[in-house]
Amino acid sequence: MNHKTSIKKRVPLSKVVSYAILTIWAVTTAYPFFWVIINSFRERGEIRSDSFSIPWPWTQSFTLDNYVTANNRSDFVTGYTNSILISVIVTIVVILLAGLFAYGMVRFRFRGQKLLRGMIIAAMMFPVFSTIIPVFRMEVLWGIASTQNRWLSLLSTILPQIAGNLAFAIVVLMGFIRSIPIDLEEAAYLDGCNVFQIYFKIIIPVAKPSFATVAIFSFLWSYNDLFTQTFFLRYPQEKTITLLINEISSQAGVNYGLMAASVVLVVIPVLVVYVLLQKNIIKGLTVGAVKG
Amino acid sequence: MNSMIYKKKAPLLFFLLPAFLFLIVYLYYPFFQNIINSFMSISGLGTKATGVNTPWYANYVELWNDPNMRTAVKNTLLLVVCTLVFQVGTALVLALIVDRIKTGSRFFRTLYFFPIVISATALGLLFNIIFLYNGGMLNQLLQNLGITTANIDWKGEKYYFFTMLLPVLWQYVGFYFVIIVTGLNNISTDVYEAAELDGATGWKRVRFITLPLLRNVICTCLILAVTGALKVFDLPWVMMGSGIPLDESWLTGTYMYNQTFIRGNVDYGSAIAVVIVVLGVLLAQIASRVFKEKEY
After folding, report:
1. What share of chain B is helix, strand, coil (3-state, %, to 5)?
2. Among the CATH numbers 3.30.70.660, 1.10.3720.10, 1.20.140.10, 3.40.190.10, which is that of B68-290?
3. What are A86-112's pLDDT values in tens digits?
């Protein structure tokens, strides 16, 4: 063995170890999802004895029963509709209001500005646990919470979720708007734009990436937020997908196939969106996290 | 920034008022109302307070003597510590390794991040099947490999904390991983080249170049991890329900929810929420002191 080959051999070794460690964590991450998918297609009784083999469609183990049962037990279409309605509205309102507020805070100088800034930072630390009860009581008083009316109930969830996401969104957007050079705005001003036109025609297009970050964050938080949803959505027609899943988990008893199928039903749409948008999501989330 | 454009203050109202109203009505008013509520006597979520407790601080005395509350605080603190060590630790190790390879790093990043976008509710259900006593994935695996012969009760006395902790840790490793990788990418290659000339390679390079330069990013992660761990609710709630086994697995969030919603002790729940806030402020203070960012 001459000198050259021994070097060639040594380099791959550290690489092999690197890839091995990375692959182990990759398997740890991916395998549970794979496992639950294959078991959602398996005959009920077999999960508990033989859950690692793949139930190929041409074998006895394969079945679609779990999905049929899941579909009969709960109304997934309504669940998805409610979830998406809530999250989309929350996201839109959050970026609208937070954008306006952040712009006003960064560009204008006024009395009480420091206090207002402090209030925003402090609001970021309020856990939802500490505000939820008074919010619920307030909304009952207004007649929007626990009314059995689907749209009012959705509204009663949307409002506190907006408030919960606002402070974070404002902080991220303020950081970004501050970094936009003011020359652009001055040029537009000389061309006869007023403040509102400057905001909508200059700031929003320039700050688009950070608006996207905030939008992704708000959407995910709202979609996945079990806590607020359990407080405000109690009747069948208002349930979101997360609530349905939570219900199934407590009612399914020993029907593990049903559980597996309902997990898959929640995970698959998100998986599709994730694969399509993964570049934006990862970039967006990290920008937000480091700046926030 | 005394630009002419922003001399007129009238448009400010349009920019600030909507979000401001939201914050006042939905965060600040309820926040202070909640503190008041914790001294009142309230029997139902939608019902009026029937008066002040006697003595007015009765709930806090009860909290102090409540063994479940002690368990909840203890578990929450333990969760914070484990999050710091294992979540950020694993993320750091993986990030340092991924930084050494070229092909496939984007694949690993995408994969590691995936659990974060999945709702904790679905993950809780998934882990319920994995940790099942009779024929769950883990018990099957251990028996197939011949490590154990009897089923292990993952939610029993012995393993409940591990069972509650593992999914929470597992889900968020990718989050800190991606943040640290971004930080690593920001370290310029010049620094490494200079270090190499000085003879710093391998572990030395990591210890004396990478880690010090990564300090601020790691600090951010640690602070995020502390505040994140305090907010954990969904996963333990789906998996551990009412504090199984025998009231041992309570966290402050799940216990507050249980008191308010299941048992209808609204004012007591408010008091727990106040304790959660105090705990959060304290820990956030400590975290930002200990993991202070440095300017270079």
Report:
1. 70, 0, 30
2. 1.10.3720.10
3. 999 999 999 999 999 998 888 888 888
